[in-house]
Hints:
Elements: H1 20-44, H2 52-66, H3 77-91, H4 104-125, H5 150-165, H6 169-193, H7 197-205
EC number: 2.1.1.100, 2.1.1.334
Keywords: Membrane, Methyltransferase, Transferase, Transmembrane, Transmembrane helix
Transmembrane segments: 78-97, 103-125, 146-166
Amino acid sequence: xxxxxxxxxxxxxxxxxxxxxxxxxxxxxxxxxxWIFLVQRVEISGNPYAPLLLLSETAVAIFTLxxxxxxxxxxxxxxxxxxxxxxxxxLLIIPGVTLVPALAPLGVFLAIGGNLxxxxxxxxxxxxxxxxxxxxGIKLTGPYRFVRHPMYAGYLFVHLGVLILMFSPINVVxxxxxxxxxxxRILAEERLLSRDAEYAAYMARVxxxxxxxxx
Length: 215
């Protein structure tokens, strides 16, 4: 048993609002509300690249709504705060200005390429997608053959592209905080998932979590 998840048998003793499936629903509502505010910011933005923000974040909202419920969900407050912080980073971005227009093609390439990677990962996950650390089923195919968290790798490329296309100091701070939480979130997820023998074997087979050669 790890420190990242309460034993399943204690779930019935938790307050109603703190049970995994209830927390799942609270999380879904929060993501959708933040997504609506992001859409509003994109609509009033004068940056022509602003709609690129909606590609990955709309996918987050959709997959959050259709995912499979689970009781194998971390109920640690720290894990939830990390997950929400990492997810909210992309939803809180403000469309800024293209600071270096010559780099715009690179920004578009990173944003679109990153969206394709994270979309591929989401299609493999399907209803197993989630925000808080949880075991909704182990996926070992598609981009998961190369890194253990390809969806987050896609987000990384998207966020780099967004900073090139829509730079602002606020966005730098938001992403810095978001990725600090994202790294800790990855470690929390793996503490939970490594309790599954199949995932433990997968970790031994696929060495890198996010970026081959780095992490």
